[in-house]
Amino acid sequence: MGLDVGEKIKNLRINKGLTQDELADRLGISRHLVSKWELGQRLPGYDAVEMMAEYFDVEPELLILGDSTVYEELDSCIPRGMKSETASKLIDEFSESLDKRDREIFLLRYVRFMSSKGIARKIGKGYGTVRNRLVVIRKTLREFLDRCV
Amino acid sequence: MKRSELYDVIARLDEDLQQQAYELEQRPVPRKQLFFSRILPIAASCAAIIITAAVVLSIFLPKMIGGKDPGETPDQNPPSGQTLSATKLSYKGLNDDIVTFNAENYGAKLISTDVKGVHANCSGVFYNQYTGELCCFEHAFLNASGISLPKMSCIDFAVDSADGNLAAAVIRETSGEKVTGLWILDRKSDKARRVPLPEGCRSYDSITVSSSKSLCNGILCLAVNDGKGTHSVYAYDTAFGKYVKLADSKDAEFVAAEFLAEDIILIKKDDSVYFINTVTNVLTEVAGETNYSCGGKVFSVKNGGWLAENGVVVAAYDAKTGRELSNEKVLVMTAFDDGTGKILLKDTTTGEETVLLDDYDGNCCTWSSDFSCFYAYSAGYGKLLCYFTESGKWKTGDVKGFAEKTETVDKQSYAVFENYYLAAGNAPGNASVYYTRKIVKKDIVPEYEDEKTDSAFWDEYRYLKHLNFEKETSFYFGEPAASGEGRFYEIEKDDMILFRDILLKCLESRGKVYRERRMEGDGGVVAGTLTCGELIVYFIEYSDCFCVSVEPGIPLTGGSDIGVYEFPKTVFENVRGSIVP
Lengths: 149, 581
Description:
The structure holds two protein chains of two kinds.
Chain A: H1 5-15, H2 20-27, H3 31-39, H4 46-56, H5 60-63, H6 68-77, H7 84-97, H8 100-110, H9 116-123, H10 127-148
Helix pairs in contact in A: 1-3, 2-3, 6-10, 7-10, 9-10
Chain B: H1 3-11, H2 15-26, E1 34-37, E2 85-86, E3 90-91, E4 100-102, E5 110-114, E6 125-128, E7 134-136, H3 137-145, E8 153-159, E9 166-173, E10 179-186, E11 191-194, E12 207-208, E13 215-216, E14 219-225, E15 231-237, E16 242-249, E17 254-261, E18 264-269, E19 272-277, E20 282-285, E21 291-295, H4 300-303, E22 305-309, E23 314-318, E24 324-325, E25 329-335, E26 341-347, E27 353-357, E28 365-367, E29 373-378, E30 383-388, E31 393-398, E32 406-409, E33 412-424, E34 430-441, H5 455-465, E35 474-478, E36 488-492, H6 493-508, E37 525-532, E38 535-541, E39 545-550, E40 564-568
């Protein structure tokens, strides 16, 4: 179970009988960007999600539906009141400070919404190891963001 | 934060970071690719190995013992005197009630296995496929060495791939993986000797024994970081007690050194891979390659070649001279993300692929001891494959697996887990398929909306519910030391049962709000975590109570109350041990 925003956008577009160019025109963005979204190489910002949801007549939440546990884990790390833009910048910085293995685990979990078991298979580590590392990573992220408030 | 805001946090991450995450996700799953090169000589007088340009490949499908006629593809050049026989699925269970096989050690006599009971917490537990005996290296090592395993330590065993009685025992801390001791165990003589440090090395924590394949014929591969910027790879001869340095580097870290095959050592350094043929002393660099394997039958492994593939190009190398070869037909095993895969024969020149075995899950294959045959079993497909390396021909036969994953008896549902293991016989074309089955009674658990999408949660619930503390008198838990908090608590058996029931209540409460959310200003702090099987439990201490949440619940310091249960501190007053700090 991942965050298949791109897959959903593609399905909605195809169901509406649109090409990527046509969708890009409707939304006032480049086709290149639509392609990146659909391939999963980049996530559309929430304002773009809202725009697409209105165009396709669906709830925005439907597009960003993903493992609620991952959202909750992320929420537990971000100090109350911190803006999403600030949190993003700081998380960028935080991810640079991680070592290679932790970075891989962090990205796969919180950007690709991969399950712990999926991550363990992907990186060739034990499930327990991945779970333990995620606990440590979250704790460290919490402390890092708390310091920045 | 609302979900939309949380989503925005991720969406606003740097584009490069998102791209990196995407590429990570697309990266092939490691360990599932295996390539085998078949290299034939053309003339005995040739010193180098010359590759055949084309081979006619055919399938001969003989009748299986106990099975029906398998296939219909005619054999164009049936090999004479070669048959493929497979025994019917047979149960090779042990006395312990829960056993699984792990077919990692292809063709090894000792098969890693998980057991419950007296060896429940032991590492290095193996099943000997030939004698049927269970071997516990941890018990053997502790008895032979006479040492006591330090608290919060564990032992990793690298069993000699040529001699199942010899093993390297790497003692390390469970939290930070720091190595604290290195021994060699000889089960034949019941002796254990400490491995001395190489020259210039001050402590064992600068040593890395990278994998279970690090020991072969009494030679142990290990990597050393001298702490001053030099990284080295050594071979330690356990018989003579001597070190030989294989390679070193001042600017990059050697990640691993292991035996790919007898006499062939593989060294990984950043993105580069090196092979050393310890007979010819030839070092070959295979820069940038991501998958590799070594094999070859005609000249035996010592003179055989190896294959490297980076997802696009397949290259073959002569192990004796290091020369790159071409025009190879190679055996390729691929696995897809959904667990299914294929075994293919690939022409490295044309890229043409022939499927030999479909629906292969990547967990059941083996070589014969002389590399004359490669076997693979697809339980889902019900087929056993034998590939004859000498002739380049292959055969498949029917060996049906178990189709049912659940069974219902008297309206009670049972989940059925089975594992398969493949063993090469003593004659070419002879293999046996073993299986184990574990039948678990399915509990009736509360139904929640997310049950269908998150069965892993309920699998963990059932696992926890079945944890047996009869033979355990204490249970340790705490935060990993690397996080900076090293508090550990010991709970006696009876209290662990109480604890388990508390945790089960936490899980059952999922979806219900037990209490109002506390404000962070109340002074909550994570007091500790418990790793119990596959679960992680958070304890958050307040002035008058503990709040317990269980992953995949969430800690109380943020988010919703899913999976949170509040206990007044008085609940823990009767618990022996020091839960309350």
